Amino acid sequence: MKVLANDGISKSGILALEKGGFEVITTKVAQEQVANFVNENNVDVVLVRSATKVRKDIIDACPGLKIIGRGGVGMDNIDVEYAKSKGIHVINTPASSSESVAELVFGHLFSGVRFLHDSNRNMPLEGDSNFDGLKKAYANGVELRGKTLGIVGIGRIGQATAKMALGLGMKVIAADSFIPKVDIKVEFFDGQSITTTIESQSLESLFKEADFITLHVPAQDGYIIGEKELAIMKDGVGIVNCARGGVIDEVALVKALDSGKVAFAGLDVFESEPKPEMAILMHTKISLTPHIGAATGEAQDRIGTELASQIISLLS
Predict the structure, then answer these.
(1) Residue 117 annotated to the active site
(2) Which keywords does this Swiss-Prot/TrEMBL entry list (predicted)?
């Protein structure tokens, strides 16, 4: 049987699939050519990440397809229910990238509270000529310890983020329509651990109470954070989005950054991805990454081997 890993797969995933008797194709096929390639090469399994879309047209055009797999959590680039209605298995790896995404959230938080994103732009330009000026410009940092982190969506990634926040000495609050409360177990290197319970509260109360807000939700029909929500937040709030583009109104966000209502934002995802708006890319108060939340070697190894395990159990 043949597996097309169109957006790539880790070496460990390839080895596991080959050991299970599968042929793995890692050729990058253009979106408009996917259906033809699948049919011409008798591909049984298509694996994607966030780049390739598997919509109704591909599903209809590929009657031999048995599995569609998503390396990662979000499945908004796959017509999941339609695929299932055609007897195709749809799989993903919801637990594999949680820690990687959570660490990126804190990369953006640390960058924001200590101006690292802007300092790293300006030190090469002015570090030798305006050292004291830059030192003064970036002197008003704040600590994360003791502050309140509001987590919107306390699923696997939200929980991994909560563990890191607790380890830093932050207060953690959460809002989630589907999870009323959750036990968070923080494990230490020596086998010891502590467990605390976080109860979900309303979005409105979270927005009012949090010093920093991080989003961990799937793609939405509308904005979770828009002008109205920004207005009720604390002055000087920091906002991070490593979830999905389109859950924050970017026009309203820029306006709030310009006014000082929002101190900084950290964005890994964008409304107009893969061509983010220039007003976002050039803003000095935004820490930016190009949708790399799950892009660590460890996460990709876990994703690859977990996909392989699911495929082998379904088709062997």
Answers:
(1) no
(2) NAD, Oxidoreductase
